[in-house]
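Fill in residues.
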């Protein structure tokens, strides 16, 4: 199967082009995709044709979640249309699948909204800017990630009171940056593309001189505090001479000794075997000290998440690992099941396919019949929040658009995608119209959730 075919059963990562195809043939395949999904048609949104009820789609996701945390999930999502959008990836997945698509496959991030781009430290301790959330990753049409990003810019702009004209500019800038970066990727060698990334200095260069100061200050501050030592100082206390993670019910809750022992014997033992051999040697130098159950994010609330504290042999080098339940991607019901039988493995495979560099402790395991993936907690992971980005949303949108294109080009056919996009701003203009219409739809869906909570159909609790 080539990268221009529509998939009904998803491969581990999106297939690349057939090496026997010439550049001209790959360009022709990209242009032919315009017949399946005309660029101008992407501007339209028809609520009547979406084929599902948004509230039903949200509620259906509760089946695999911790029941007592569902009111917290609803409370976080109902807080604002922006929070709703962050938690409603399943709604948008169903909406996007109701429309014709290009068939130009990449490894989708699956939830490429504007705050799912951030900074973190590579194994070499360099700060890179990249996609950061892969719970919904699956091979699929490239434009679905771009549409998710475009609509998020309008929803986020409205959240912060940014003018509509500025939101439109941010969308066009992001999508044009995607198109232009994809055109450059189409001319790069495979190895050059694989090694390509956005260093923190390159991210800073997107902003105007007036905006760089606050951004740099924020990044430096966060890179110092969002470390294992920073988390240890903030989240732990000494109890009977041993460090323990502080409780903060219902957001951090202690688990009993039996559950902790079972988690160690089952999940962590299996996870250990998914690490590279050299990293397994390193992991074995740490001893588990404490585990709590944790509530994270918006869309992830209710999924079982553990925060585990390990201590190195010196006794002064803590390691925090986040162990997060992984269910099916919200796109699997639309694109076919993942080729990975284990959803934790699906998340990590997608993460590695999309990111320039990936943390040394990523892996997966199983516990009590559920799939989980594991990653380091914090470890210099930095998110630039909406209030900080408000004065420079357009510049940040450009960084996100370019980064998304580079990530997609690693697994998809940049030549075919670039040919589909063309040399004009037609794709960007269409997505600008779509983003406005979909932001309106998101507000209606958020209001539907508000009504359900007000009527008592859904329980809601303070989310933060």
């Amino acid at each position: 199967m080539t990268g221009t075919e529509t998939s009904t059963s998803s491969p581990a990562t999106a297939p690349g082009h057939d090496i026997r195809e010439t550049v001209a043939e790959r360009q022709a395949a990209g242009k032919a995709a315009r017949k399946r999904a005309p660029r101008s048609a992407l501007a339209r949104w028809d609520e009547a044709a979406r084929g599902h009820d948004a509230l039903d789609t949200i509620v259906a996701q509760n089946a695999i979640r911790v029941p007592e945390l569902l009111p917290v999930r609803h409370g976080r999502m109902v807080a604002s249309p922006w929070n709703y959008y962050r938690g409603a990836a399943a709604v948008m997945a169903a909406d996007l699948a109701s429309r014709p698509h290009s068939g130009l496959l990449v490894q989708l991030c699956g939830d490429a909204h504007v705050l799912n781009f951030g900074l973190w430290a590579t194994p070499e301790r360099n700060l890179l800017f990249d996609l950061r959330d892969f719970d919904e990753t699956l091979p699929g049409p490239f434009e679905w990630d771009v549409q998710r990003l475009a609509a998020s810019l309008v929803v986020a702009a409205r959240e912060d009171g940014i003018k509509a004209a500025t939101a439109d500019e941010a969308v066009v800038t992001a999508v044009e940056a995607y198109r232009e970066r994809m055109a450059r990727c189409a001319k790069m060698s495979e190895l050059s593309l694989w090694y390509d990334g956005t260093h923190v200095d390159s991210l800073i260069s997107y902003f105007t001189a007036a905006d760089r100061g606050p951004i740099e200050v924020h990044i430096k501050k966060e890179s110092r505090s969002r470390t294992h030592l920073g988390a240890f100082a903030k989240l732990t206390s000494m109890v009977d001479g041993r460090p323990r993670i502080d409780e903060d019910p219902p957001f951090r809750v202690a688990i009993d000794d039996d559950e902790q022992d079972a988690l160690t014997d089952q999940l962590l033992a299996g996870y250990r075997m998914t690490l590279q051999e050299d990293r397994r040697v390193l992991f074995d130098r740490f001893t588990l000290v404490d585990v709590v159950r944790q509530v994270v994010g918006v869309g992830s609330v209710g999924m079982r998440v553990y925060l585990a504290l390990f201590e190195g042999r010196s006794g002064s080098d803590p390691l925090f690992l986040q162990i997060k339940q992984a269910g099916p991607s919200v796109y699997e019901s639309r694109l076919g099941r993942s080729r990975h039988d284990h959803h934790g493995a699906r998340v990590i495979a997608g993460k590695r396919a999309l990111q320039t560099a990936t943390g040394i402790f990523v892996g997966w395991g199983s516990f009590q019949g559920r799939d989980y993936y594991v990653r380091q907690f914090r470890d210099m992971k930095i998110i630039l929040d909406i209030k900080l980005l408000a004065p420079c949303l357009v510049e940040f949108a450009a960084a996100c658009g370019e980064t998304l294109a580079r990530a997609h080009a690693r697994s998809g056919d940049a030549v075919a995608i670039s040919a589909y996009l063309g040399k004009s701003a037609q794709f960007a203009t269409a997505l600008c119209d779509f983003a406005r219409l979909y932001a309106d739809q998101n507000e209606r869906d958020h209001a539907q959730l508000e009504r359900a909570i007000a009527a008592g159909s859904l329980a809601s609790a303070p989310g933060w």
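The mean pLDDT is 93.
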